[in-house]
Amino acid sequence: MTSRDQILSLFRQQSGAFISGQKISQELNISRAAVWKQVEQLRQLGFDIEARRSQGYRLLQGPDLLLADEITTGLTGAIDWSLDCVADTGSTNQDLRQRAEKGAPEGTVIVADRQSAGRGRLGRRWASPAGVNLYCSILLRPHILPSQAPQLTFLSAVAAARALIEISQLPVRVKWPNDLLVGGRKIAGMLNEMSAETEQVHFVLLGIGVNLNMTAEQFPEDLRYPATSVLLESGRTISRTAFTRSLLTHIDRLYQLYLDEGFWAIRRRWEGLSDLLDRTVRVDLNPGCLQGTVVGLDDDGALRLQTADGTIERILAGDVTPI
Amino acid sequence: MTSRDQILSLFRQQSGAFISGQKISQELNISRAAVWKQVEQLRQLGFDIEARRSQGYRLLQGPDLLLADEITTGLTGAIDWSLDCVADTGSTNQDLRQRAEKGAPEGTVIVADRQSAGRGRLGRRWASPAGVNLYCSILLRPHILPSQAPQLTFLSAVAAARALIEISQLPVRVKWPNDLLVGGRKIAGMLNEMSAETEQVHFVLLGIGVNLNMTAEQFPEDLRYPATSVLLESGRTISRTAFTRSLLTHIDRLYQLYLDEGFWAIRRRWEGLSDLLDRTVRVDLNPGCLQGTVVGLDDDGALRLQTADGTIERILAGDVTPI
């Protein structure tokens, strides 16, 4: 941890109470003048820090910056996280894929403040304005077969849903194969990718985009699907740092569960977050269209659909709409 | 085509008969002196070209160089081949993957004279000495699902088997999942890789290594599996250029068949090249082991095995040995 991160950590331990410059100087083993300098730097980053002569310093409010140490400090899980927060990039998946090809370890994460070429599934655009949302890609290296890799799409969807529910209490639901909805409007999307040979996966990237504090004006006009954000649904602004911490915590827990117990443990949780079980849906295939009742998720992530004549169709790709 | 390639093409049309310098000069629209210069350059590359004052030039023998134009000139198929022949590389798959990530088109091929870090499946080593064998990687961009990508492993195995049989008449057989054998000894191996998201494949690399003119001394001593080459089996030296042309021709034909008719067309041909259908085998899994009768190939490339109690097991990864 840098001195700056250590000071931030001390402030957070105080929960808004004052801590003396003397105490900070002792804890960090730096001079009082150095403490003052660090505080000034934090103020320039947007932290609102009050100073009182007899009591010292206290943190009134932090800015909603994405700082790697702020996100990962204190996370206790099995994954050894290694975060990189960047201001601006084309696509976090693309950046992380390049690092993965060069051997980056499991737990490597790229978080971007803004994406200039954010993508959704099937090459569709993912609106990624600066300062308001979370755009991140997480590198995992599970010992699984290529046919099992889509299972991790459902894992990341469950993790993002749990983090959203934890932090916003919104009624978040999963939409097959890789979106999260609130009131039928898209609030998050997963774009998972893999590199594999016939019998083994080299790596999987969990690409996750979540609309947190995006305003109505920030959505593009030509959306394929109605979209929303936590701010629009709840009227509240969400701390991106707190949300990202929660997301990584849930990813870690679910990943350990997946490695220990297999996909069924994830599937149950995903199905529990779905509104479509036992509902009649239309699936737009390309080309064609299918209608039937959703009966669950298959081992490879396919949606199991029972058609009018009773046969079970396995949907591997397509857009699903309840009717 | 360069002037050099045009002259080579003219020589090959003569099938060893003389062609006058005058004729070459007219056909290429270059001076007699320029023709002579090109012939000298070809000689330096190892082509044995006879010159007679009254008759002109004739090609007695070409060296076994791998030259992109020599390999692809005259290939008539649907794929627009773009070959790059390199003297030395770590691994052709690794090189091609980098180009694929940057958007290289379908039909891009890397052929190496030697690989310093040639790999087989599951990270195993693939002996790749210089000047004797074929090591190549072929980029395809089919519109298929990730679960279908392993099907192309079987396509490349059938193509390599057909090219080997065409050129050597050896009794080549396929070994699940990705090898070719002659008399139970490994003569070729496939290492196919993919990059994909949940619902679509970005690209597939067909990595193909074939032992053509390798001598007994060139095999490493610590082989996991007995290996052989066309030279060792037949006593004959194979033209690497002719073999590569044949391989690309078969890949192209089978790929069009696959796109038109689906995997069943490939599966039938692969099963016809297999000795294991209806045979009892042992499968070494990791961990564990299974015994049963091979009953065929599944849609996703899994080996279907009927065990003693009649149930069908699907083998997705493992080493198969007849017993």
What do you see in this structure?
- In chain A, the strands form 3 sheets. In chain A, strands 3, 4, 5, 6, 7, 8, 9 and 10 form an 8-stranded mixed sheet that branches.
- In chain A, strand 7 (179-182) and strand 8 (185-190) form a beta hairpin.
- In chain A, helix 2 crosses helix 3 (32-44), helix 6 (151-168) crosses helix 8 and helix 8 (240-261) packs across helix 9 (263-272).
- Chain A folds into 3 domains: 3-61, Winged helix-like DNA-binding domain superfamily/Winged helix DNA-binding domain (Arc Repressor Mutant, subunit A); 68-272, BirA Bifunctional Protein, domain 2 (2-Layer Sandwich), CATH 3.30.930; 280-322, SH3 type barrels (Roll), CATH 2.30.30.
- Chain A has helices spanning 3-14, 21-28, 32-44, 68-72, 92-101, 151-168, 230-234, 240-261, 263-272, and strands at residues 48-52, 56-61, 82-89, 108-115, 134-140, 172-175, 179-182, 185-190, 193-197, 200-210, 280-284, 289-297, 303-306, 312-315, 319-322.
- With 323 residues, chain A is an alpha+beta fold.
- The termini of chain A are far apart.
- Strand 9 of chain A pairs antiparallel with strand 8 of chain B, so a sheet runs across the interface.
